[in-house]
Amino acid sequence: MHESNLLSLLIFLPVLGAAVIGFAPRNDDWTRRIALAFSLLVFVVSLPLWFNFDTASHEMQFVTRVPWIPAFNVNYAVGVDGISVLLVLLTTLITPMCVLCSWKAIDTRVKEYMIAILIMEAALIGVFVSLDLVLFYVFWEAELIPMLLIIGVWGGQRRVYAALKFFLYTMAGSLPMLVAILALYFTGGETFDIQELSKGSYSSTFQFWVFWAFFLGFAIKVPMFPFHTWLPDAHVEAPTAGSVMLASVMLKLGTYGFLRFSLPITPDASHDFAPVILSLSLIAIIWGSYMALVQTDLKKLVAYSSVGHMGFVTLGIFVFNSEGIEGAILQMVNHGITTGALFLMVGMLYERTHSRLISDCGGLRMTVPIYVTLLAIFSFASFGLPGTNSFVGEFLVLVGSFKSSLLAGAIAIGGVVLTVAYMLWMLQRVVWGESTRKDDVVVTDLNGREIATLVPLLVLVFWIGFNPQPFLDRVRASVEHLVTDVSAIRGAKNIEGLNDAVLPPMRELKPQHAAAANPVAVNRTSADACRALPCQIANWDRKQTL
User: Fold this and answer.
1) Do 347 and 441 sit in the same domain of this protein?
2) Pairwise CA distance, residues 11 & 95, whole Å
């Protein structure tokens, strides 16, 4: 176990930046510069997580463990593995972009706004690195407050309604989670250590209640259908930075929770209720894409696209194979990149036209060529054009889905088709469509600050699209360990029962050589799409073909 204080530095540097801004004299320009400097510093400090991460290990790395409340066995314990490391890096990358995109857009209470951005960054990093349930819950609740303020104070006309709706939904999920945490403490040997609790064996009844308590909190945060109704309002009313942070990072808290808690701590319940979750995921993919297709508000279109994209993530998690889970983790990162970029571009266009209506934003091809080019690239990436980042994640999720069921894979592909439809339809109207905006509205192309904000995301779109291996290498060991551990903990109740319960199983050709029956490895494609599978899935494939 690699010990380091690096993660603590990542948590407390933004807090230090917020304190510096708070005690500094009120000067908007200097406030922006200080916030940008600290957010960039946090990103630079986080880079060793990428370069020094041991890709061969599934153990927690960069660990710090200090007693916090010894009487109740509560510790300040932080660490990262392959499931969380990319999400921490995504958070540190997105935050400077949120500061930059607010440079001119936010001109009231700039000090308080930048403090909220930095505090939210610290809390989000804390959620992803916590190894103690109490610490996790503290950070989980802490990130709610700055986002509530960002929406409620600096949002649009219906900001109070959107902020309260966001708050009430989130709190409705957080309270059952707190009860589940206390139940785990008293049942799991009076410890809040997440790793120790993951090794425990719990009764089916206990797992049932704990699973649903956690599920409610995570499903609201994703958000899964039908818990998604707070999301469009929050996105539409939030300022650009709030929408970017919400889409790029905050929605990932729910799917991260499924991977960190639901699967390892309640494996039986996760298996038993996977049919429900897979069905909700497929509904989200189709319904979210359809709702995006009929939107006339550009920001709301991108908001509904998140419902469909996150449906792919939950689908990949609950097909219970390595391909699906690896694809889900990568797709969490991809969604943060592409959807974050799209929200940035919508915000930049709104600053020029003061309208989010697609009809008011038409005919841009001749006036803003740089903007149109970048909008097209990020739109293509959003629907998974080969050569862009989302293609790799969607491909792995589809491989995992088809391994579970032909019908599940077919429905998911239908969602991809709808995604292509609404993105191309949006581009056609914005780039070539007729404009209804007033003649005195002059739309100028992107300036240097805006281009600098988008370039890192543009680089990642093509880096992951053409060379995803470094990213997959960092998640592979942890994912294979998770799949194998969940299968082992379940014992006689094998994962193979999942697909018979939810959708017709896929019939594969009978293996022709011994390697296909190997419990550790099966055929690998050149892109490493097929990952190591546990013994149960390999045996299930053989039984289905006999």
Assistant:
1) yes
2) 13
**Please, what sign has the CA dihedral across residues 246, 313, 282, 399?**
positive
pLDDT tens across 39-86, in order? Answer: 999 999 999 999 999 999 999 999 999 999 998 989 999 999 999 999
Do 323 and 462 belong to one domain? Answer: yes
Domain that holds residue 44: 1-247
Q: Is the peptide bond before 470 cis (omega within 30 degrees of 0)?
A: no
In the chain, the number of structural domains is 2
Do residues 201 and 350 share a domain? Answer: no
Q: In terms of pTM, does the model score above 0.90?
A: no
Helix axes 369-382, 322-353, angle to 10 degrees: 150
* Same structural domain, 195 and 290: no
SS3 439: coil
219 and 335 assigned to the same domain: no
- Regarding whether 119 and 204 lie in a shared domain, the answer is yes
CA–CA gap between residue 430 and residue 259 (Å, rounded): 38
Q: How far apart are the first and last CA of the chain?
A: 44
Residue-wise over 210-242: b if at least 16 C-beta within 10 A, else e?
bbbbbbbbbbbbbbbbebbebbbbbbbbbbbbb
